[in-house]
Predict the 3D structure of the following.
Amino acid sequence: MRPEDIVDALSGVRLPNVFNPYADICEVYDRTDAVLARRSNLTMFLRAAVKLGVDTLWMGRDLGYRGGRRTGLALTDERHLPEMSKVYHGSKATRATSGPALAERTAAEIWAAISALSIPPFLWNVFPFHPYEAGNPFSNRRFTAKELATVHEINCELISSLGIRRIVAIGQDAAYYSASFGVDVVAVRHPSYGGTNEFRAGIDALYPGKRKRNVSAEQVSLF
């Protein structure tokens, strides 16, 4: 399945109380070309991963309203969009929103870790959209089993197309779901809610000898 086909499949999903960054426009923050920007971000990310020979995927739970809802990229906030072309050669991510670039603490930890690796992982989520509480689009909630069922085949196609051999599951939701793909799965603590040190230790154990990078106070100032 080509990167364009995966993005097209994602953009065709419509669910209540779920923001699809590849099809939906946020009337508060999005630019007029926001959907095209986020589709392009993901398409180029997929292409770059193929060229790099990425065979490991880091999987989170779902997109957050401060991060992937705005960028269209899992575990990535706007502060780290400039890092894309440095780490994933051949890709170029652009902002889809107006106003100040937002930061997300989880994204800061993720990018501090992957920027130190010789071959970075592909970043994805169990549920590749932003589920929110009814009436509050700028909130986060856990996806439902019915919602997950609508994207499971797309997830399968993505993992197969990239030739993923190992999934690093970030948090228990991701660990439980990843077990269904028949590849090696390693679970690490999610860095939010007091799990920062355990997350770092888990990544260090998976990638011994990698160059250490500190996360600055500015990077984690916003959650």
The radius of gyration is 16 Å. Residues 211-223 have pLDDT under 50 and may be disordered.
